[in-house]
TrEMBL record:
UniProt protein name: Caspase recruitment domain-containing protein 19
Species this chain originates from: Acanthisitta chloris
Localization annotation: Endoplasmic reticulum membrane; Mitochondrion membrane
GO CC annotation terms, alphabetical: endoplasmic reticulum membrane; mitochondrial membrane
PANTHER family for this protein: CASPASE RECRUITMENT DOMAIN-CONTAINING PROTEIN 19
Assembly mode: Associates with BCL10 by CARD-CARD interaction.
Entries under PROSITE patterns matching the protein: CARD (PS50209)
Single Gene Ontology BP annotation: regulation of apoptotic process
Keywords, in A-Z order: Disulfide bond, Endoplasmic reticulum, Membrane, Mitochondrion, Transmembrane, Transmembrane helix
Phylogenetic classification of the source organism: Eukaryota, Metazoa, Chordata, Craniata, Vertebrata
Coiled-coil parts of chain: none
Amino acid sequence: QSYCHRLQHDMYFLTSTSRLNEQVVDKIVLQLNRVYPQILTNEEAEKFRNPKASLHTRLSDLLKHLQKKGDRHCQEFYRALQINAEQLFNDLPSRKILKTPDPTEIDTDKEQYMLNDRGPVFFLACFSVAAGFALFWYCCNSDTKVIGRARRILGFSPIIIRRHVRKICMLYLEDISRS
């Protein structure tokens, strides 16, 4: 979204009563007058700082003038607003739209956390279940020609493996609790 469109969207918010005081508007006009490249000429700056005109009128005229000048001028206005009135800058309606995430967009950081929040113990448990199921399927399948002794060894292997896995998991949990 271009800065001119954003400024048009924020115009009512900025010109409403008591959003910007006279000192802040003067600082913004002076900054736009002094910035390189010069956004406002000296005559334009005097016009927008004229205390005889109401603040609402001067601010409205300034915003319309910047929109006519182009996107670069509007961008410099936002920069000056951020420097001189940061809280107001953060409360702008266009900023809130930019901060609001698209509901259809996937937040990769959140998605990554959601996929990895279970930890290594969960992975080991799932892997053990899958390996046990595969081993069970292999041993109980009548097509495979496994010798009887091998079948007995494979039948007791989950008990043997379970002891070692339990020790490893307990060591891992103790290590985490110390950290």
